[in-house]
């Protein structure tokens, strides 16, 4: 063999020896390129589902709250697995969230993909969808637009805040829980979550807990079907330290309102305390309370909901009171109540009355003052000065008031318990003097009461008991009708049951 042939043979042998290594390097480069492209494609994905049906959009469509306030969908699904002691029903119905069978998320929880990660959080329906039954044996009927009287938002919030510092939220245990919940991570997702999601998840939850938990520590339980509208807004949106809140303003829980027939309410004083006559500003403020920010809000989605609610009628009352009693009750109501609240005709609700939508001063209505005091002048001034500044959506019409607004009573049969803080179980209870009204009862039931509202048994234990002696829960005030003779009260209730 010549010297040249020997060299060529040696080079050929070296090439054969390196060929597998080169193939491995090429394969590694191709895999890295594939993963990198997949990761880039995943991260670039953003968007949310579209619902052609307005009711489904209301129940499940995003308003933009997920971006700043949400948690990953797969974490949401894993929490009942991680914390079974907090989710005795195995899902979010443990806190009164409702499922309509159209998807695996409750009504009021929407999903939006943000930088490749599906996030979930609240929309309008979380506070404004509830159920009723005519008897214990009936299947609950879901009504969108009624108050979410079954929802324990305070309990849910405490669990989520507590999870932030729980060792079970560590990546390894959370990853296992997601797999057990049927939402395990794929290859590309694992890389994305390890690089970006896991490191930020607990930090974000802990930071939010550090701001909100001190507020909750100063407040009594909100109770089923109630929320503190503005104090969480102060500490989360405006970053006010809880310690800066005065003792007068720090308790502000009140009932979720119904939101039927918003069109006739235009230019009335809205919110319980009548602090704004603008439907658009009220809607946007409520969206901020649900977790959107001026940077993340989905105006088109909110405006679609707002347009739909203009004409959304409540379902007809299933009560069937005596017709003669209804006729007599109508006369009493027109004499004593219609000026403030409008009235119900056989053809629908009549939004007419000299004082309808106006504000009755606190010293006249006499109901619990805490919700009124929670909305302060300083808070109002910051709302108007900062939120959506320089945009067509800037707040201009908020005002500090001295009382509570006279609200229309359409869909009244679905709106118990009564008064702005839900401290009176039935319409019959509202027509007796405050010292005689129930002092402790259970909220959150959905079986309708023959006397208006929902059956609310007297408490037998302290668990979930609504105590009207607790601050913010007073059942005092609204004395109208309490001095009627009992036959007149019965007739008035008969008429009110037709609303």
Low-confidence stretches: 26-44
First-last Cα distance: 109 Å
* General form: globular
Number of helical stretches of at least 4 residues: 17
Query: Gyration radius, to the nearest Å?
Result: 28 Å
Would you tell me the structural class of the helices and strands?
alpha+beta
Give the proportion of residues in helices.
Answer: 25-40%
Strand order of the largest sheet: 1-3-4-2
Report the portion of residues in β strands.
Answer: 5-15%
Work out the number of β strands: 14
Sheet with most strands: 4 strands, antiparallel
How many separate domains make up the residues? 2
State the gist of this model.
With 499 residues, the protein is of the alpha+beta class. It folds into 2 domains: 1-44; 47-496, no CATH class.
What tags apply to this protein structure?
single chain; 499 residues; alpha+beta; 2 domains; 4-stranded antiparallel β-sheet; 14 strands; 39% helix
What does this molecule look like?
The chain has 499 residues and is of the alpha+beta class. It folds into two domains: 1-44; 47-496, no CATH class. 39% of the residues lie in helices and 10% in strands. It has 17 helices and 14 strands. The chain has helices at residues 3-44, 54-60, 65-69, 73-82, 153-163, 171-180, 187-217, 231-237, 279-289, 299-309, 323-336, 338-341, 362-365, 370-374, 377-386, 427-430, 486-496, and strands at 47-48, 71-72, 109-114, 117-122, 129-132, 141-144, 226-228, 253-255, 343-345, 348-350, 359-361, 403-405, 440-442, 465-467. A four-stranded antiparallel β-sheet has the order 1-3-4-2. Strands 5-6 form a two-stranded antiparallel sheet. A two-stranded antiparallel ribbon has the order 7-8. A hairpin with a 2-residue loop joins β3 (109-114) and β4 (117-122). α1 (3-44) runs parallel beside α7 (187-217), α4 packs across α6 and α7 (187-217) packs across α8. The longest helix is centred in the N-terminal third of the chain and has 42 residues, at 3-44. The termini are far apart. The model is unreliable at 26-44 (pLDDT under 50).
